[in-house]
Amino acid sequence: MSYVHVFSPKAPKLKPIAGLSIPFCSIGKQSPSSWSLIEPSSFKVRGKNCFRDKKKEFAPTNAAFYSLGADLFLSQLKIEHIARFLGVPSISIPGDGPSILIVNIQVAVYFLV
What we know:
Shape: extended
Distance between the termini: 22 Å
Order of helices and strands: EEHEE
Number of strands: 4
Strand content: 5-15%
Largest sheet: 2 strands, parallel
Strand order of the largest sheet: 1-4
Oligomer: single chain
């Protein structure tokens, strides 16, 4: 995996730019180890009456956030608030909500020796 960055929780001297370690590819030109945008309406979500009828319906055609990039890091320690170690782009979007949402998913991988 050439796109995995080994990461230390100590502040790095140079901050890697967020969203550039895994390449973007359009859906028509997919390649391994890349990511693509997908239409929000391709997902089924809980409907208004889901608790009564247990039915799901297709999501609306717009989304609250759209992906700008993806990264993968490997670290020996759990890292809280990873954005402080990355160069996050400055984006200004009109409205009341945040302009950027960073989703940090951490998976514990234990190796037996």
